[in-house]
Amino acid sequence: MNADRKMIVPGEFIQLNELVSRITAPNPGMMTGPGTNAYIIGRDDLALIDPGPESDVHHSALLKVVGNRLKWILCTHTHRDHSPGARALKAATGAQVLGFAPTPDDGRQDTTFAPDRALRDGDVIDCGAFRLRAVHTPGHASNHLCYLLEEQKLLFTGDHVMQGSTVVISPPDGDMQAYLQSLERLLALDIAALAPGHGHIIETPHDEARRLIAHRLKREQKVLDAFSKKNPATVEELVPIVYDDVPPRLHPVARRSLHAHLIKLGREGRVAETDGLWEVPR
Q1: Co-location of 61 and 195 in the same domain
Q2: 196: cis peptide before it, omega within 30°?
């Protein structure tokens, strides 16, 4: 994956290896890093993973590469920076849209997503020259799928793992307990590298999964430790304590993951909530 070393430029075509290329959408930002990656797989009949947001510029860049060879459009999940572009690409190419069934709207979903084929864990898309296997990885989104390119042991991770930033877990659809379990699942997969929805290729997949698990558990301990300073406390009161290592401008986003940690700890009986006040039982 030596081609994946320079700065990511939206709209630029990058050949990652003999079978996989990447074009990044022009939607850089705090939540998306350099933008949402679209991965194009194949030589003749092509598959595309994560068509990205609705964007005429991105749509044109993708069409310029795939032409009339696009047969499959796969979406990792239905957040609005990943799946909405599928509609225009399907209309232009006739390609089949695949993904997990839509999840109830939490204000962040692409509510118009309607896959031609709803995938489940373990489903295989036989693309002739290559195969993609769906791996259900809930946590960031309940309908999140990763896709394993079996021939290369390359896992396309969408927002399950992002390079250079931490994934936000936003209840009610986001679930910290499910997210940690999905990270643990990566440790059992025979994978050589991760192709994230944002950022560069990650060539140490199992080390990265272990790092992320350790990071989340360390943050969870900070949540529990915060109650030594204020017990009970609201989520808003806990944020600056638990995320004292994060710039205040990011605290509104951090609040979501904090809430997800509290829900997980509540299920485990380690904290309790009453009328918006969280506490460690005395």
Answers
A1: yes
A2: no
Residue 199: CB atoms within 10 A of its CB come to: 21
> What's the confidence (pLDDT) of residue 32?
92
pLDDT tens readout for residues 259-274: 999 999 999 999 999 9
pLDDT digits (tens, 9 = 90+) for 191-235: 999 999 999 999 999 999 999 999 999 999 999 999 999 999 999
The structural domain count of the chain equals 2
Measured in degrees and rounded to the nearest 5, phi and psi for residue 67 equal 50, -130
Kindly give the interhelix angle for 205-226 and 251-267, rounded to the nearest 10 degrees. 80
DSSP labels for 258-269? HHHHHHHHHHTT
Bridge-based pairing of strands 46-49 and 37-41 is antiparallel
* Token pair recorded at residue 80: 């609005």
Q: Indicate if 166 and 98 belong to the same structural domain.
A: yes
How far apart are alpha carbons 223 and 221 in whole angstroms?
5
Structure tokens at 232: 């009970």
Domain limits for position 66: 14-203
Q: Which tokens is 79 given? A: 């957040």
Helix (H, G, I), strand (E, B) or coil at 194: strand
